[in-house]
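[Discussion] Sanity-checking designs against the backbone

I'm trying to build intuition for which residues belong where. Below is a structure token string of 301 positions. I'd appreciate it if someone posts a full sequence so I can compare it with mine line by line.
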């Protein structure tokens, strides 16, 4: 786990240093993200979906994680109402409190803590727990910001355009073929997928901003919900129903405790909501994860 944290920190630091030293500009960053979202991550999702075991216990893990995230979003919504915060800030509380960085950051944490087999399951977990909910939440946020009108057609269109979702569907479809696909077919995909984690962490580093810790009190409230309340709900559920943690539930605990989703910042900015606060939750949540993730792992062991 310590080696995984060291690798995560190194790749993020290299990305941040490249930004500070002006070694990478917006154009290069756009190409990097395009490669990541359209090629590397879909290859990882397809390969993981085809090879990872999917069973009822796994689906229960996904459903429980979604419920914990949704409850956290509702809790933060009521806290925002109690604090009499404006609509812009309330939306940040709900969105950033309910969606976590389960793929870019969660994958290397899980891989380092539990191994390659659970890393394959993370890519499926991410689509069910984060990717598909985000496809619904995104249009809702934009409609509340007056940018678009929410419709199921818009959600379906968003999913149909998502390379990650399409890779998930293709991976699930290939599982249904009545014969085993030889491993050599996946060699190029596996090579492409191996680039996803370092590129994703590098991209996070490029997007980081430590210029000012604005609205630190509000940032602390959001991060307390996302990184403490949500995993605490999952922890309590497992201890009450199972009595102890298996590795599959430990994977879920790591994922639910991840900091807010990077893509959530883009949606909130596009809708005209409090983008600075959203960016703060991502940046400082990332730093906080190096403390909270080992803590949750220790408590679940």
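Best answer:
Here's mine. Compare freely.
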């Amino acid at each position: 786990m310590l080696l995984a944290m060291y690798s995560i920190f190194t790749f993020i630091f290299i990305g941040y240093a490249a930004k500070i030293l002006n070694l990478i500009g917006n154009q290069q960053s756009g190409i990097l993200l395009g490669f990541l979202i359209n090629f590397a991550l879909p290859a990882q999702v397809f390969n993981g979906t085809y090879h990872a075991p999917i069973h009822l216990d796994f689906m229960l893990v996904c459903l429980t994680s979604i419920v914990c995230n949704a409850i956290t979003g509702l809790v933060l919504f009521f806290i925002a109402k109690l604090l009499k915060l404006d609509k812009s800030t309330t939306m940040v509380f709900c969105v950033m409190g309910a969606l976590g960085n389960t793929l870019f950051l969660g994958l290397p944490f899980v891989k380092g803590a539990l191994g390659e087999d659970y890393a394959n399951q993370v890519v499926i977990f991410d689509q069910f727990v984060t990717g598909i909910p985000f496809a619904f939440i995104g249009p809702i946020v934009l409609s509340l910001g007056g940018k678009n009108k929410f419709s199921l057609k818009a959600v379906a269109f968003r999913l149909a355009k998502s390379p990650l979702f399409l890779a998930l569907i293709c991976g699930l479809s290939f599982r249904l073929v009545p014969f085993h696909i030889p491993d050599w077919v996946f060699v190029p995909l596996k090579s492409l997928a191996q680039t996803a984690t370092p590129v994703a962490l590098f991209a996070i580093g490029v997007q980081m901003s430590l210029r000012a810790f604005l609205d630190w009190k509000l940032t602390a409230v959001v991060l307390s919900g996302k990184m403490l309340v949500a995993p605490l709900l999952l922890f309590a559920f497992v201890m009450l129903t199972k009595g102890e943690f298996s590795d599959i539930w430990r994977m879920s605990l790591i994922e639910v405790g991840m900091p807010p989703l990077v893509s959530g910042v883009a949606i909130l900015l596009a809708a005209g909501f409090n983008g600075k606060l959203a960016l703060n939750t991502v940046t400082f949540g990332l730093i906080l994860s190096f403390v909270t993730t080992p803590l949750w792992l220790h408590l679940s062991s």
